[in-house]
Fold:
Amino acid sequence: MHIRKFDVDYGRRTLMKNAALGVGAGVLAPLWPAIANGADLGKVYPDELLSIEVLTKGKIKPGDTLTAANVDVVKDLLDPITYRQVKEMGRKIGIIAPPKDTSVLFPSAFLESSLKNKGKAKFGPDGNIYAPDGGAWLGGLPFPDAKTGEEAISNLTLSWGRSDYCQYAIRQWDMQPDGDQAYQYDFVWAELQAQARVDGTTFQNRKDLLRIQSVWFTGPSDTAGSSFLSTWYYDQKKYPDLYGYLPQFKRVRQFPTNQRFEPLLPGITWFLSDAWAAGDPMLTWGNYKIIGRQPMLGSVSEGWAGDKKNWEPSVHGGPKGKTFWDTTMSLCPDCIVLEAEPTGYPRAPVGKKRVWIDARNQQFIAYITYDRRGEIWKSFEAGWSQYSKGNVAMKDESGKPAWSWTYIHSHDIQSNRMTRIMHTENTTGGYKSQFSTQGVDVYNKYLTNQAIQRLGQS
Structure:
């Protein structure tokens, strides 16, 4: 007989208490020393925060599927839009066991940098993050054990993809409320870290920059060539420079700052502001506050469809059976619930955002925005996984399995339009996903005004 040391609600009560006291992650013991030592998380969290079966008293267990018939059992473990998708729109979510090895929740080099530099980050008088010598952040998570809203958002903002260079081949489908497809786009998204790099360098000595990011559409033919370039400054009070090349105008033009709250092309439900749940410089938002800590269901492991053609899983649900990706989720024992408001954007249509952040790796697993009336507007749900499945794996530069996002559901619940996005192996134009430059001068090839004009004309 297994004798329980704690009652079934002990973990949740302690998480709420920790949130009120501003205490870091962990219930039975601090989280990050356990991660550093490769310890079993059973020493950090009680059973009901590590087992969905224990938490739900046997009503849901790994191997089950969430449907409209049983989703109410875990309603408080899902963001409100995901709950409605399952309850009202025919979405189904497979339940798997959480990973035992916490290292699978990170790119290997990023985890090493986070452990190496833990405790070295500090806020300057200007609100930016600095290293002990007053220079830019050294790489990895600046605050692995985030205790404040500002610390939590900096973990999301300083390095989106958690690699020094990421290039994503992407396919996207924009679905109408009746379940039919309105648009389908192929594009490439590239990110180059200028600072806060895991290799400890500064790109081209550009100490004024944080990252350079571009996106160029490769299909269909009527949108191919539309390209956008966003240059982020290290000073998080400064707005990124946003330029775009549209083939019909045959020139590069600069877009205004508030363009971050508009779709790049017709039919798309996500904005640049939504990217990574931290699509704007963190000091252009404000009123950050942690409103709670709780267990949540999230897609954090075993989600890579590397055994499928072009890494594309099947779809289901909605009026025509093609609104949602087939996905799985597991129990995340401790999630930070963060809220913030767009204080630097007086005309923003967003009133506030709420982000659920997995305390184990400080990555978001759910994100919703509210409109100016305070009504729920959109969700931006991402899946994450190590890129390994059976005998198939995509390796990083060190030879270890890569780690990245796998899918996105961007759901405008007010119009009931869904954008579903898949991180694919390749996309139209012959572009492939990769997590390093592979010796290519990606800056001049993809990340300048001349580059996006050339990409648009090719």
In short: The domain at 150-457 is CATH 2.50.20.10 (outer membrane lipoprotein receptor (LolB), chain A).
